[in-house]
Amino acid sequence: MSLIIPKDYDPKLSIRETEEAIRYIRETFQDEFGKEMGLQRMSAPMFVEKSTGLNDDLNGVEGPVSFEMKGLPGETIEIVHSLAKWKRYALKRYGFGMHEGLYTNMNAIRKDEDLDNYHSIYVDQWDWEKVIAKEERTEATLKETVRTIYKVIKHMEHEVWYKFPQAVHHLPDEIHFVTTQELEDRWPDLTPDEREDKIAKEYGAVFLMKIGDMLEGSQEPHDGRAPDYDDWSLNGDIIFWYEPLQRKLEISSMGIRVDEKAMEYQLKQADQEQRKELPFHQMLLNGELPYTIGGGIGQSRLCMLLLGKAHVGEVQASVWPQEMIDQCEAANIHLL
Asked: With 115 labelled, which of 33, 100, 259, 335 sits at a CA distance of 20 to 30 A?
């Protein structure tokens, strides 16, 4: 368990006021985000059959919560880690056309998560996916999409300030772009997390690009990424410098999705070539799925960021070790 306790923390809002702000942020942001990005809200599964290959492997080591159901004997059902692959399949299945897309409320359980101020075993995010042309699989498309998302977040900050002026946490006006290799070149002796803290503090808001492949110096990835959804050369994380905790805060992981060539390469790099036999992977390698860009935006993390909260448990109800609950309560951090 890792926990940061800010000195003289003031939550600004009572629990009931915080709940009101959470509802306002979640309802308002999803409407504005969907409109700005041209996305339709869709229903999504909380669990999928293991045999489909649709569940997200995250870093490749986290185990999903799974169970068996009476109606499908012999089949393992997994609670989703995210909907990264399901969304791309859904765009084909529901007949979405060029530059059309979807977003959905995604609720997941990540039982192997290391708990701290930012991380919970309960994950809630807006998962989104949009059809693009093959020739739009470029860094320019990625950056343009990041700037659009950042514009919506900045507008949301203004909306929250109008209703809860005493609580809003102010964000930088612009987002900057940097690659993981540039971070390693600049700070070769620091860990990836330490590099992210450094660059986030310097710029305030950063889109950290190219996550998953080997770095030139360490010959290790900056961070793990599943090999079968993001193209490691066209992905990244939206990261803020978060003053209340004196650390970086990641809000979104996103990217242009793998094409056939990138899928082959990344599965080989990850020693996961056996996944090519799964139905989703077969469809992709056979050219049956659209080219897409997509990602996830943390709902609780966005609430935490905009309201200046010290712990994600102040904006979502989850399960925490009693030691963490006691330490937080003593520091005026009220976990839901």
From this structure: 33
Count of Cβ atoms closer than 10 Å to residue 305 Cβ: 22
Edge-to-edge strand list for the sheet holding 76-79: 47-49, 76-79, 66-68
Task: Give the SS3 label for residue 8.
Answer: coil
d(CA 111, CA 297): 20
Catalytic residues: 56, 110, 125, 237, 250, 253
What does the pLDDT average to over 276-297? 92
Helices (H), the chain: 15-37, 84-93, 139-163, 180-186, 192-203, 260-269, 279-285, 299-307, 322-330
pLDDT digits (tens, 9 = 90+) for 123-169: 999 999 999 999 999 999 999 999 999 999 999 999 999 999 988 88
Name the pTM for this structure. Answer: 0.92
Residue 208 in tokens: 């950290």
